[in-house]
């Protein structure tokens, strides 16, 4: 029997939390496998992302309602309850009894004996939810803000220390909103107006943006983007504006030799290839064979011929690459705190600031390695999708203090803040030039 969007949403949530999968990948894979209506797709997406985003708050409610500790609940039962509580709090047009009945049906399919427990918890929540919600009204205390916004206390503490209290609240508020989706037009195959027309035929409405000439913002879609004729023909790739901006600032030109040191999933490499009009050479390196194979699939679909892929450890110097590249792009592995709107599970991935410091040590190694590869007069573009200084300006400034033949170039360091730069995720970009010898 075909599973409902609510059932699939519970499966997706469990996969993200228990198997540490990325929510955006899981959501796209589930949607691609189903033939849901627009309404069912939206329901599925809203339940998954909403439940993940409010996980700590929802667990707080569940902890009040249940005598059984939340951590000791069977995972599937816990996620049925959390997803149902999320719906009862946020879906005004769906009656509580309908949400409860659907949750009980889902439970009976896999664990009939737990259906009474689920029914009791959710009916109890329906009676008490207004009073319980009043307990969650945030005060200025760290404990209260943590519970209300579903953020670990240490992240809020670090953000307040860096941005200030008011700016931090603005970031927390904007991260509650679902982000817009952006496409990058492949100018090797079509013009933006041709892509807009092709997508419109498939019931997908997009519009151009002011930031990047190739960037299109998704306005409305009657079908999944990756099932469109334009996608299958390689006319576009889904990519965030921050990721596009990194390439735009690096400014690859035809004929150059460029190394993308941590390339997968490959959006930046392919964008550079398009800007270089399939000339020159791009070496796309990554540690993951699986992700490089996925990149090769995108390369074929997009009609790219100037990218070579290589399994490569960006922390280890490969001496044959010394002084070999006009430009080096290092999109460093990071905590991804700037991507919380797209992957809300990121909030719970790190336990403390010290883990970010450990990540920064790897970033510093990678940047030192990048410095060996770029030619005199060449450029390194260092970028992350995170929002705290340990992985951003601290890494760059320490590098510049130790390496006298490098300096900031152009705008130097650019931080894209979603509360200031509309439609952008939190993103950091530093353009570093090696001096001529």
Automatic annotation (TrEMBL):
A molecular function GO annotation: RNA binding
Catalytic activity: cytidine(967) in 16S rRNA + S-adenosyl-L-methionine = 5-methylcytidine(967) in 16S rRNA + S-adenosyl-L-homocysteine + H(+)
Binding sites annotated in the UniProt record for S-adenosyl-L-methionine: 262-268, 286, 313, 331
Record Pfam families: Methyltr_RsmB-F (PF01189), NusB (PF01029), RsmF-B_ferredox (PF22458)
Compartment(s) where it occurs, according to its Swiss-Prot or TrEMBL record: Cytoplasm
Family matches, as Gene3D superfamilies: NusB-like, Sun protein, domain 3, Vaccinia Virus protein VP39
UniProt keyword annotations, A-Z: Cytoplasm, Methyltransferase, RNA-binding, rRNA processing, S-adenosyl-L-methionine, Transferase
Entry EC number(s): 2.1.1.176
InterPro entries on file: MeTrfase_RsmB-F_NOP2_cat, MeTrfase_RsmB-F_NOP2_dom, NusB-like_sf, NusB_RsmB_TIM44, RCMT, rRNA_ssu_MeTfrase_B, RsmB-like_ferredoxin, SAM-dependent_MTases_sf
Residues annotated as catalytic: 385 (nucleophile)
SAM-dependent MTase RsmB/NOP-type domain sequence ranges: 171-435
One GO cellular component term: cytoplasm
Described function: Specifically methylates the cytosine at position 967 (m5C967) of 16S rRNA.
Family, per entry: Belongs to the class I-like SAM-binding methyltransferase superfamily. RsmB/NOP family.
Protein name according to UniProt: 16S rRNA (cytosine(967)-C(5))-methyltransferase
Origin species: Tindallia magadiensis
